[in-house]
Amino acid sequence: MTDIAKQLSIALDSVLDPVSGQGLFTSGRAPAPRFADGIVTVIIDVTDINADKRALVEADVNLALKAIEGVQDVRVAMTSTRTTRRIIAVGSGKGGVGKSTLSANLAVSLARRGMRVGLIDADIYGPSQPRLLGAEGRKPTATDEKKLVPVQTEYGIGMLSMGQLVKPGQAIAWRGPMAGNALGQLIDADWGETETLIVDLPPGTGDVQLTMIQKYKPAGAVIVSTPQDLALIDARRAINLLTEADVPIIGLVENMAGYQCPECGAISDPFGTGGAEAAAQELGYDFLGRIPLELGIRTASDEGIPPAASGGPGADAFNAVAGKLTDWIAR
Ligand SMILES: Nc1ncnc2c1ncn2[C@@H]1O[C@H](COP(=O)(O)OP(=O)(O)OP(=O)(O)O)[C@@H](O)[C@H]1O
């Protein structure tokens, strides 16, 4: 590499990729700039970076490159390689392990990193995203083509839920095609510029999962489990179904590990600890992180304030998992 080429790449790397947090050159967003007659030309892949952040990146790149001696002008071209919307499924073997809580917080955390994210609550047995995102009672509208328009939430993400397709409190006893059609309505909705859809799946391996795999193959799946053996045995079943359909497993998350007594501060592990990490290792998948069992996570969630949005209880743990998910997406 010539001296000027090296300087240009280093300057480019001083500007951080808003998604991965790495320098633009290192993260692969931008190849080494071209330089001729005092003019630098740089091409940046801005997939998953929103319009505001794109403008900031462009301004920073201009500044960094113009600071190099001999550079008279900088030309920045932005391209987006994304052609299809990416679906990230969040699944678990059994219910009540915190799959919906994790989905909501991951979606919020990704949106805060500048990604255009939507959230689909496909849990026909217990739709809970309208409550978790403080959007209860808001109904989606429809376009002229009869596509659902997602409900907007305070957290910068659109949301659609199975719960919005039925009357509140009505037991959902859909089977096969009905469940599949409902999922289709949510996924084929008017998601606009949304690039990543987080899908909160029902627990287990039922009709919704089958439709998802057959018709709307996710780019990858995150599996949530509590640490104890029983939940992990079920989680393995969910993993098997996905891997048989060639859906990549992004990794496992352990939820409800390590409870700190609010009185004495002692840490106890009601559901054990480390089980999901050990299972991930044994199965050869990444371990994405551990979310503590905290009363504040439950209360904030019930109030419709996802901890990842407010820096509330467990926010660091949710953000750390979202960081690993972002790395996976960037790869
Ligand atoms: N880390 C945690 N600390 C404290 N409470 C939690 C935690 N994770 C989830 N909860 C609470 O546990 C309950 C179940 O969580 P959630 O609804 O996310 O589970 P789920 O796996 O989606 O369940 P379901 O399959 O029934 O929809 C909720 O009341 C939630 O607030």
UniProtKB/TrEMBL annotation:
Protein name: Iron-sulfur cluster carrier protein
Function comment: Binds and transfers iron-sulfur (Fe-S) clusters to target apoproteins. Can hydrolyze ATP.
Quaternary structure and partners: Homodimer.
A Gene Ontology molecular function term of the record: ATP-dependent FeS chaperone activity
Pfam families: ParA
Family as reported in the entry's similarity comment: Belongs to the Mrp/NBP35 ATP-binding proteins family.
UniProt signal peptide: none
InterPro entries, per database record: FSCA_dom_sf, Mrp/NBP35_ATP-bd, NUBPL-like, P-loop_NTPase, YlxH/NBP35
UniProt keyword terms in alphabetical order: ATP-binding, Hydrolase, Iron, Iron-sulfur, Metal-binding, Nucleotide-binding
Binding residues for ATP: G93, K94, G95, G96, V97, G98, K99, S100
PANTHER family per record: IRON-SULFUR PROTEIN NUBPL
Gene Ontology terms: biological process: iron-sulfur cluster assembly
